[in-house]
């Protein structure tokens, strides 16, 4: 028995693979294109572990996926691979449509052909798990209840629109062809191996480098935050006990405005790694031009997965964020290695016209 994971060299995918092989003895075939966001360093601790088979390749490559399915005969596919950064989707939506929509379509078609060729328990037990986001539901007003699985889809960014499209394809492949799928829609993750283009790792990296901490707009946008290993355990619970065709919302019961997240990071950095001049990292805060179409609030009602599958997050925000800051402080080489020329070009592109002070 084995599972095929796509995007297992990215932030959540690599945490999932590491966690899976700590928790279980079942091999993982890890298919990842290694875009700017994919990093084999995340999986370095698995060097020499024969339970991990890494394959560099594209989920749009049907021939490759057919070969991997035929060779390894996985009992499940866990689909993380995606373009995942909203700001990048605003600057260049094409790659988001290609990977998130065409790629998911290609994977579904390959999975369907493979599943049709299975028989008996292998066929009934097979699962295609699709990893998605709460952003497909759109933006909430302050008084709205959190998103449930029956909220209408109202995606507002090219990223969330492409993820919404992929969710619809997954749903349709179940209803039309009977493919045994499950989907999870999760809130914002944070933790180790988070690429420093996203809010939390960017703020830590910029603070330590003496750069400004760019807050979009008024900083009052609200996100629900979940420690990444809790997302991994939720996906394992869905794979183990989830009902075919069902959607599960996953969240941390932890809504916070962005400015509060940044202030928490500042407090922890002041404690663990104070500035040489004795001043607070808050001196580096800079309010900058807002993201176009910026969703105001996301919040997740995670009662269904708790009620039906017995899943709840193990970390509180207080424990998870302390671990995260400590991880970044102890893994400065990892951060330096991902801050390549391409990463610096991205920072220039995204922040140059937001009037961030030098
Ligand atoms: P990430 O950007 O860190 O990693 C994506 C991975 O996919 C990378 O390793 C990349 O190389 C790989 N990839 C990209 N295009 C590919 C292609 N065409 N073929 C094969 N591999 C490809 O993303 P992440 O934050 O780890 O997110 C993983 C999944 O979880 C995504 O589907 C995302 O939509 C979803 N999600 C993310 C969050 C979050 O807070 N980060 C929250 C909810 C859901
Ligand atoms: P991000 O980590 O990009 O995740 P998402 O857009 O998928 O929620 O951003 C989280 C929030 O932080 C979002 O409201 C945008 C905001 N943000 C900033 O204020 N400044 C930044 O430099 C970045 C990258 C994000």
Protein traits:
alpha/beta; Rossmann fold; binds nicotinamide-adenine-dinucleotide; three-stranded mixed beta sheet; binds thymidine-5'-diphosphate; seven-stranded parallel beta sheet; 358 residues
What's the topology here?
Elements: E1 3-6, H1 11-23, E2 28-32, E3 52-56, H2 62-72, E4 76-79, H3 86-91, H4 94-116, H5 120-125, E5 127-133, H6 158-177, E6 181-186, E7 188-190, H7 199-208, E8 213-216, E9 222-227, H8 228-241, E10 247-250, E11 255-257, H9 258-272, E12 285-288, H10 303-309, H11 317-330, H12 332-338, H13 341-351
Parallel strand pairs: 1-2, 1-4, 2-3, 4-5, 5-6, 6-10, 7-9, 8-12
Antiparallel strand pairs: 9-11
Helix pairs in contact: 1-8, 2-4, 4-6, 7-9, 9-11
H/E series, N to C? Answer: EHEEHEHHHEHEEHEEHEEHEHHHH
Q: What portion of residues is helical?
A: 40-55%
What global shape is seen? globular
Kindly report the name of the CATH homologous superfamily of the domain at 3-194 and 225-256 and 294-317: NAD(P)-binding Rossmann-like Domain
pLDDT under 50 segments (min length 5)?
none
Tally of helical segments: 13
> What is the fold named in CATH at topology level of the domain at 3-194 and 225-256 and 294-317?
Rossmann fold
Strand order of the largest sheet: 3-2-1-4-5-6-10
Radius of gyration: 20 Å
